[in-house]
Design a protein that fits this description.
The longest helix has 20 residues. The protein is of the alpha+beta class. α4 crosses α10, α5 crosses α9 and α8 runs antiparallel to α9. It is 42% helix and 14% strand. The protein has 3 domains: 51 residues, Molybdopterin biosynthesis moea protein, domain 2 (Alpha-Beta Complex); 224 residues, Orthogonal Bundle (Hypothetical protein af1432); 62 residues, no CATH class.
């Protein structure tokens, strides 16, 4: 099984994992042979990537977080947001329910062997903000785990991450979803959302200050060039520093109205390049140990031209995976295993979605 962008899916591919709509209803069952009309429908529903069965790897991709937890979190987040806007309903009861689900999600991630596989862009929810915030939350918990945070710290970090963009409720949707470059005036308006979100949570919820601070600090930069307050270095709360990294990474790897997503490994390199300037380098180091840019089942081309499938990872050395080679000089060969950790002069050059010998055929 492997995860590939929907625009790389071809008729006849076999679906590796079932697809569901926003209400949890089955759309397409696993092991279905996809037709062109199915692929078009999946695109229309907003799926950016799907799992397909691969003849070159039988690896099963485990769900780190149970789908029912994901759906409950989405539903409760929407419910709480609507309560905050309408000032109706039992807000504290809903926040308590959310807190309990967050505890279960934290347990799931703490007990998983692989800290992070592919939590992003796999499924579609009916509002980008909810999907984005949920994925940022997953990433933040994972990074916090790597940093050795306690379960209570992870719980607070998770809720802060989930509501980090609540201030965007006060930004016109036509600006948030604008398909072209923002004007300077529009960007200045966007830059008000951290302060607005922080004040909103302070006024209308009983969430602790340590949770609320995430909404305020997640656009601050380590070198002081961020917003809204231009905080620098240690002035930025540690939760804000973590969510800043996760927020940018998730945004880069998701489709936006004004650009397409970029591959995991490219987004990871961008984050690493910003360590010490945009981002706290300690957080970046933890992030690099957390996010695997080449999950098992990924097709890759090596710097010497060979092509293969990621068979396994080397813990803490995600950029030096174990590859099962299937192609040399564009020709199909009897596969063999190659461990990049054992060589210095060969690297992963790029992610591919088919082997050269299949294209030639």
């Amino acid at each position: 099984m492997r995860l590939i962008p929907i625009n790389q899916v071809k008729e006849g591919y076999i679906l590796g994992k079932s697809l569901y709509n926003d209400s949890g209803q089955l759309l397409v069952a696993k092991n279905t042979s996809l037709t062109n009309s199915m692929i078009r429908k999946i695109k229309e529903l907003g799926y950016n990537s799907i799992y397909i069965v691969s003849e070159y790897t039988e690896a099963e991709i485990e769900e780190i977080v149970k789908p029912e937890f994901i759906q409950k979190t989405i539903n409760l987040s929407k419910k709480i947001t609507n309560m905050l806007i309408d000032r109706k309903g039992n807000l504290q009861k809903s926040l308590y329910e959310l807190s309990q689900i967050i505890n279960e999600i934290v347990d799931e991630i703490l007990n998983s062997k692989e800290i992070f596989l592919n939590l992003i862009n796999v499924s579609k929810y009916d509002d980008y903000t909810y999907k984005h915030s949920l994925n940022v939350m997953f990433l933040a918990i994972s990074v916090g785990r790597t940093l050795g945070y306690t379960k209570k710290q992870l719980h607070d970090l998770a809720i802060g991450a989930l509501f980090h963009d609540v201030g965007k409720l006060f930004i016109p949707k036509e600006i948030l979803l604008k398909p072209h470059r923002l004007t300077s005036q529009e960007f200045e308006l966007i830059k008000t959302h951290p302060q607005k979100g922080f004040q909103f949570l302070k006024e209308y919820t009983e969430l602790s200050a340590i949770i609320r601070i995430v909404s305020l600090d997640h656009h601050e930069k380590w070198d002081g060039t961020g917003y809204p307050q231009g905080k620098k270095g240690e002035e930025i709360h540690p939760f804000g520093r973590i969510v800043a990294v996760c927020d940018v990474f998730e945004a880069l790897t998701a489709n936006r109205p004004y650009r397409h997503e970029i591959p995991l490994f490219e987004a990871r390199e961008y984050i690493f390049g910003g360590g010490g300037s945009f981002f706290d380098f300690q957080v970046v180091q933890a992030f690099s140990k957390t996010v695997n840019p080449y999950p098992i089942g990924t097709y890759v081309k090596l710097s010497d031209g060979r092509e293969g499938v990621i068979q396994n990872t080397n813990h803490n050395f995600y950029t030096r995976p174990i590859v099962e080679i299937h192609s040399e000089e564009g020709k199909k060969i009897n596969p063999y295993t190659f461990n990049l950790l054992e060589v210095n002069n060969i690297t992963v050059d790029s992610v591919i979605y088919d082997f050269s010998f299949n294209k030639a055929g």
